Amino acid sequence: GGEGDDDRFVRVCVRKRPIFPHELSQGEFDVVTCLPGRVVVHDARMHPDMRHMFMNHIDFSFDDVFSEDIGNNDVYAATAKELVGAIARARASGTVMCYGQTGSGKTFTMSSIYERVATDIFAYCEHRTVSVSFIELLGDDCFDMLNAGAPCSLVTAADGSVHPYPCVEVNVADTAELKALIDMAARLRATAATGVHDGSSRSHACCRVFVQAPEKEGIT
Predict the structure, then answer these.
(1) How many Cβ atoms from other residues are within 10 Å of residue 130's Cβ?
(2) What share of the chain is helix, strand, coil (3-state, %, to 5)?
(3) Residue 42 has pLDDT above 70, yes or no
(4) Range 2-40 burial, b when 16+ CB lie within 10 A, else e
(5) Can you point out the beta strands (E) in 49-108?
(6) Highest mean pLDDT: which of 27-31, 61-65, 215-219?
């Protein structure tokens, strides 16, 4: 994580997507309330007499909670922006991971984060080398999305970290180039998922951006 009052290495945030019109037309209804740092799930249950209903209100706490009314700029500002600033100052490496069921809005949220990270990295890191790689993990298989989806291996380094190899890592000169490469990789991944099985719902995309530190030590 970035620098701040909270010294923890991991922050967990929740973003609620809006209920869709087709869900409302099917008789579904909203059962989640977002409060500052809390999510309340309203769980409708039936009494043992099978005649009367009752409601359980289940409360979950998180570092930050974003309702369906919160836009992408505010989500980014409260999550990844500080981390990008810390990386630009060569004081941290970090990961932004999005987890959720199919259709919960992961791609929508991560695409907006990619765009804003690309803008901020070049705003913060003038005259420093920036490069990017993009892989897809599907079970035990790994594919290089910047090399037309070519398969690659996962190898373990001496420190226990795992890396794709061989894997294309492309230098980018500006925000537009970084966005274009990420968009290309995302389109290739989406195209590969248009077969009988929706591979994108069972796979994991991993975009890695590398920034050369002033001391010529690469950080991610």
Answers:
(1) 20
(2) 30, 30, 40
(3) yes
(4) beeeeeeeebeebbbbeeeeeeeeeeeeeeeebeeeebe
(5) 53-61, 64-66
(6) 61-65
